[in-house]
Amino acid sequence: MRGPAADLPITLLEVGILAGGVAILDEVSLTINSGAPTVLIGPNGAGKTTLLRAAMGLIPATRGRITWGGKETPDQTRLAIMFQRPVMLRRSTAGNIFYALAAANVPRAVRHDRASDLLKLVGLSALAHRPARRLSGGEQQRLALARALARAPTVLFLDEPTASLDPYATKAIEDLVHSITKLGVKVVLSTHDLGQAKRLAGDIVLLHRGRLIETGPAAEFFEQPRSEEAKKFIAGELLV
Hints:
This protein is an alpha/beta fold. It is built from 8 helices and 9 strands.
């Protein structure tokens, strides 16, 4: 992995993003620092995916300002994102990783070793030659993680990485998040699973209807939520 991320913190200052005249994000101010994973939670339509894409630099702010380590433009070679339903290329498991390494301009001479390291990291070495589209859902998610890591990012964004996975596959992804964090990569992920948020988060960001409701250290958020929305969400009540 790379050294300390020069593009952290990622700072959003009164960021608004409109789509068809509708506010998807509404005056969101947030700082994403290095360290343990930042976990975005909130009901469907809260703005989690939009916030991830904006923090990645894929969506421009309609209003407000986003900076990466104080810079107005992110270094896209240092950021990676894994979407909720990644597409598998019509190649082998290893072939998918080789493609990602080539796209990241990794020198050809080191691609084999890098691919081997990534396959080992995600536990897919034994499936290196299997067609990626014949992998199970959990295996495909782990392969998608390996592809995202092919560019050796300092910040990795994960959009609902365990949606629709069974408990075994979910644990495998969560174990990988812990391993990736230990490598010095900042992970920012969204989830609907409060149990997962408790297991992974260093800090929590609660969104609702495009607005930032509450943010802070995970332990404090779950033990002493400050907002009524947070109390209801933790209790399993619907936010309307």
